[in-house]
């Protein structure tokens, strides 16, 4: 099992870093990182998915605020978020 710095993985995820770049920055083979992230029981996968969920929550909150202020593009983004939410049920 490879060693992955979970704090760094979380930080990179929250900075929207693609997995291929993360692997380089974390100094782990890309295939190993992808395997770890795709294994829902692996600590790296849990850290990655939590960070991604926190980030998307922040983005949705910003879209809500912007839509309330009258932004048409934010309103459209909200429709997309709602559709994704409904499809995930």
Architecture overview:
The chain has helices at 6-14, 19-26, 30-38, 43-68, 72-87. It is mainly alpha-helical and 89 residues long. The protein has one domain (6-87). The chain is elongated. The mean pLDDT is 93.
Summarize it.
The model has no long low-confidence stretch (mean pLDDT 93). The termini are far apart. The protein has 89 residues and is an all-alpha fold.
Share of helical residues: over 70%
H/E element sequence: HHHHH
Taken together, the total number of domains comes to: 1
Label the overall shape. elongated
| Strand count | 0
- Radius of gyration (Å): 16 Å
Strand content: under 5%
Low-confidence stretches: none
| Structural classification | mainly alpha
Quaternary structure state of the chains depicted: single chain
Question: How many helical elements?
Answer: 5
Distance between the termini: 34 Å
Instruction: Give the biggest sheet.
Output: none
What number is the mean pLDDT?
93
Helices, strands, pairings?
Elements: H1 6-14, H2 19-26, H3 30-38, H4 43-68, H5 72-87
Helix pairs in contact: 1-4, 3-4, 4-5
Spell out the key features of this protein.
5 helices, mainly alpha, 89 residues, elongated
């Amino acid at each position: 099992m490879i060693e992955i710095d979970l704090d760094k993985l979380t930080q990179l995820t929250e900075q929207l870093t693609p997995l291929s770049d993360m692997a380089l920055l974390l100094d782990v083979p890309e295939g190993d990182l992808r395997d770890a992230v795709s294994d829902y029981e692996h600590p790296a996968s849990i850290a990655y998915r939590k960070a991604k969920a926190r980030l998307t929550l922040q983005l949705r909150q910003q879209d809500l605020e912007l839509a309330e202020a009258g932004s048409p593009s934010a309103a459209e983004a909200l429709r997309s978020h709602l559709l994704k939410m409904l499809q995930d049920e």
